[in-house]
Each structure stands twice: as C-alpha cells, then as structure tokens.
Amino acid sequence: MKKYILIITLVLSALSVNAQLKVGEMLPDINLMNEKNIEINIASFKGKTILIDFWASSCGACRISNRKLANFYKLNQDKNFVIIGISLDRDKQKWLAAIDKDKMTYIQLNQPKDFKEKLGKLLKIREIPTTLLFNSNGVFIAKNPRGKLINNEIAKGML
Q1: pLDDT number for residue 21
Q2: Mean predicted confidence (pLDDT) in 39-48
Q3: pTM of this prediction?
Q4: HEC secondary structure over the chain
C-alpha cells in the first residue's frame, strides 16, 4: 500500500512540475482589456523588461504588493521597464477603486475569469499574488523575482 501511495505522489509531483512556466519560454501573444475597455496585447511590450503581476482587489497580500510595486515602478519607469498588472477581479468597480487607492500608475489589465482563462491558463498561474519577469526579448526569467534580479534585468534591457 505504501508503494502505491509513493508512486501516486511521485506522479502527481511530476505533473505539477511540468505544469509550471519554464525559464526560457516566450511571453505569449494575447490580448486583455484595460480599465478603459481598450484591448491591449501584452506581447506589444517586447523590447522592455516586463514584470507581470497577477492580483485581485480582495487579496490582502496583493494589495500590500501593489503599493510596493507602485513605488518600484516610479523609480524605474524611465528605464525601458514596464509592469503589467493583471487583475482577476470580476467586479470592475472594486478593481478600479483598488487601482486608485494603491496608486498604481502602471498598465492595468483585467482577466475576470481567474486562473482558468487566457493568460492565467497559458502561464499556469495557480495563486496570487504572483509576478513573472520577462527580459526585453520576451523570454521568461523568473517567477516571483526579488528586486536585485529585476534591477539586473532592467540594466541589461537598457544596453
């Protein structure tokens, strides 16, 4: 019986590893709506270092992260760097209120059907907040990167 449990655990672990976005994969060419109902293609930001941030207005950890990212963006917005916030909010008013309250001046897009829709499904997002770093060529570098790694990629993208 223990053998079967071990085998099942190993198979499930292997499946979950394969389900994650892998370093070196490319930024997908997909459109999402912004707060003004304008369709934005995320791949159009290739040429800049891109940090994609998945969040929701009801997520406390996301809201703390939003404020930190807003400050980080202010310091780096002129350095060939962009943050794309992707909200999973279904209620547009709550989404817009959070953008305003958290002072997020960077690009905001909405994917109201959570992880199983469009970009969340393609990038295999399972929890929020989640950030994904892509270099200026659109190549995936890291999931939930720290400041030093982001700063290094921004510096490379400015060369």
Answers
A1: 73
A2: 95
A3: 0.83
A4: CHHHHHHHHHHHHHHHHHCCCCCCCECCCCEEEECCCCEEEHHHHCCCEEEEEEECCCCHHHHHHHHHHHHHHHHHCCCCEEEEEEECCCCHHHHHHHHHHCCCCCEEEECCCHHHCHHHHHCCCCCCCEEEEECCCCEEEEECCCHHHHHHHHHHHCC
